[in-house]
Amino acid sequence: RRLPNGKGAALRSVPEHHPLEDGAVGGTPLRNTRLLLRMRNAWRITRWDPGAGTPTYLLASAFTVTPSLCAQATRVDCVIDSSNSIRGTTNFRHFAHAAESLLACWSFFRRYPAARPRLVLKDLRSIDGVIWAESLVRLMGCEVLGGIRAWQYYLPMATLNAAGCAVRGALRQRSGNGYKGREMKWLMSESDASELQQRLHRNHTAGGVLRVGIANRRGSRNLSNVDAVAAALSSALRSVQASSRGGGDGLQHFMRVDVNVVADLGGWTFLEQATWVSAQMLVVMPHGAGSVNYLFARPCTAILEVYPFGYYLPGEYLNLARAVGALGYTAYPGDTPYNDTDRHSSPAARYQARSVSLAPDPARVAEWAVEAVAASAQCRRHQSQGA
Description:
The chain contains 13 helices and 11 strands. By secondary structure, it is of the alpha/beta class.
């Protein structure tokens, strides 16, 4: 719903309360409208830095490992079941949730490069027909043992080893859920992501073009003002580029700025999604399943994830961006995102919070873009110096 851009003391005087308590998603009370106006003018964009104590990567101790009974393992199995993946077989068939488990197994496989990798899907876990997940498994180059064929995995280890000399690993538990203090850990190292990116054989040279991508969504959490955001980004970056004199803004290296908008990545193939993300230097995306494609972002790519009021989980996909060496930023309509999310912890409140359209302030997004280009350039300089 588009609302006028109101400002003033009257909006600041609105009492602090949850908009969803009065049905702000679909209701019409005046105080809802006034609060939403105040929220829309309070968009905050910040660099997401969870702190030095927040782990980015999975540790080896996160896996239980049963060694092969043979002198040398010829196969490495990674077990995914109800104890170490998202609850519910339907939820697991959501490609982004399946990716949590698949990428953890990919990291585990890479620790045994001489052994043939195999996914073992137990407890009715399946990715059959989940095209993005099936494509990721093909890229990983592993066999899948699932469904009724997984019955053999309930046999004693000695019996299994007689048939394959396998080393078996499994996450002890799901690595997180994205909430503060439970950030999702997707991989064991940045090199795990680099290997997957290299397997795509993508040429990432920008050719003097600063590529800025906005990946919108159809339905909930779509950017209702995406055209205004794109125009503001383009204008700001081209203006700075025109006045650039080789300083630290990072724009002096580009001949032109290309801002492109995708209506919804969901209609694209796995390869098209991965290629699009890897080609961008700046990415703007509403929070959603498509954000799992951060996996294919180049190091030092600046990513801005946009969140609805009362639903703030940067520790989910932005921790994946962090794991591949990208720079994560958040856009949120308020000053207390974690408190707001805690207060919307019931399933009904979470559903309502996720079911809105988003309209981030175009001017603030444009300001972010200029700063993000400079931050990306600094990141690349550090990388080239081996810092």
